[in-house]
Amino acid sequence: MLRCLACLLIATSVWSADWKKAVLFRATFDASLDASIAKGDPKLYNAPSYQDLQPALAGLEGSGVEYAKGEGRKGDALRFPKKNTRAVFFKAGKNVSSTAGTVSFWLKLDPNQDLAPDYCDPLQITDRAYNDSAIWVDFTKDNPRQLRLGVFGALKAWNGTNPQPDRNPSFNTRLVSVKQPPFSRDRWTHIAITYQGLGSGRGAASLYLNGQLQGTMPPIEEIFGWDMDKATIRLGVNYIGLMDDVAVFNRPLTAKEVRDLSSGKW
To answer: What distance, in Å, lies between the first and last C-alpha atoms of the chain?
Structure first.
């Protein structure tokens, strides 16, 4: 028993020491809009909408989103000065694992004062929609705004009969909701999503804010029909505020690793 416990402690120590090596993708926005680390395409793109990405162009020209020099956590950032209705995204292929991983990013805003009336998804990963093989966080549309985590597989697998998913108990009871999220115009707030086992029938996902666990979703049992070569890391859907340092890891980070990440040890 002692030998097994020692092995576990050693394995946990090595895992924690190597969490920085688990990164697949990182866009700090310092000195460049493109990702500084990317297993796939590093370029940031924009297009008129997610329904038609064919006219997508690299960069932010025409998007209304601004490259905020010197306004980031340590350098530069993205600023969404008004409600963003365009597609602003990185390609997910090879930059995101479809079954297990961690998504990390930072926001700076007061949701109750800055956001326009509507739901707002600061980040989505999907090849279809928020309710059809997707990972996302959103702010609810009414003040006081809540922050919610949603991870949903193939639409027909979990919501085959209800045409309005957000009124379906199978939707609402699966969300992780934070009633008083700690966002502010004066400081950066860190968001981390960990997920594993997606598509296995026993998937799991958790939400962290500033390194603190906010909740874990009930078991995610449905299949995921997404194609990561067609999926996108969608930034700032209906968002107004600053965004910085978007990163994706190839495994779910431990609670300690998320705390280290949120404390700026990277």
So the answer is: 35
Helix, strand or coil, per DSSP, at residue 172: helix
Predicted TM-score (pTM) of the model is 0.93
Q: Which residue has the tokens 């194609």?
A: 227
Beta-carbon contacts of 76 under 8 Å, excluding residues fewer than 6 positions away, are: 28, 29, 30, 31, 67, 68, 69, 70, 244
pLDDT in tens, 167-220: 788 898 999 999 999 999 999 999 999 999 999 999 999 999 999 999 999 999
Q: What is the pairing mode between strands 44-47 and 57-58?
A: antiparallel
Cα–Cα distances in Å, from 19 out to 56, 79, 266? 33, 29, 10
Give tens-digit pLDDT for 116-125.
999 999 999 9
Neighbours of 234 (CB within 10 A): 21
What is the distance between the alpha carbons of residues 133 and 127, in angstroms, rounded to a whole number?
Answer: 8
φ, ψ dihedrals at 20, nearest 5°: -70, -25
DSSP structure class, residue 203: B
